[in-house]
Amino acid sequence: MTAADPPLPGHAIRHGRLPGVALAIAAATSVLCGCGASEARLDGARQAATAFEEAIGRAEYAAACALLAPQTRQQLEQDATRPCGPALAGEELPAAGTVRETQVYGRQALLHLEGDTLFLSQFDDGWRIVAAGCQPEKADLPYRCSLKGG
């Protein structure tokens, strides 16, 4: 749906709710769709998530910041009123552990790790973390994320 399209019958549009709705839709799609992705795309998302988690684990925050989506990095810096590295160090993200499940749909990915859930988007230069520190509120929908873009 675009801004010019009318809302679907019975569906109101609330301003400021799109990011949460997008995460809910992505999660619902991942649960219900059963769609597949090439092994290369799955591996790309896994590698980005693993590199991000390893950088956090080693306190290499500049490397972790380089793996954030631009809007996520911008929101983090704005919220913390400091550069990405020190801001990310103060986030206290959960220790994620190994990847348990990877789901890729188009240019979006949802990764369930042992201790965290990550949302990623594919950019021209590779996969980037859109949200981390995500926990389901109820029955896997929607997710509340401590690190996310605006």
In brief:
Helices cover 37% and strands 27% of the residues. By secondary structure, the protein is of the alpha+beta class.
Structural notes for this entry:
The two termini are 20 Å apart. The protein has helices at 18-32, 39-57, 61-65, 70-80, 84-89; strands spanning 99-105, 108-113, 117-123, 126-138, 141-148. It is built from five helices and five strands. It has one domain (38-148): Nuclear Transport Factor 2, Chain: A, CATH 3.10.450. Strands 1-2-3-4-5 form a five-stranded antiparallel β-sheet.
Listing every helix as H and every strand as E from the N terminus to the C terminus, the arrangement reads HHHHHEEEEE
Distinct helical segment count: 5
Which structural class should the secondary elements be placed in? alpha+beta
Q: Please bin the fraction of helical residues.
A: 25-40%
List the domain count as a whole number.
1
Task: Based on Cα principal axes, name the global outline.
Answer: globular
Quaternary state, please? single chain
Going by CATH, the architecture would be Roll
* Beta content: 25-35%
Spatial ordering of strands, largest sheet: 1-2-3-4-5
CA radius of gyration: 16 Å
Give the CATH class: Alpha Beta
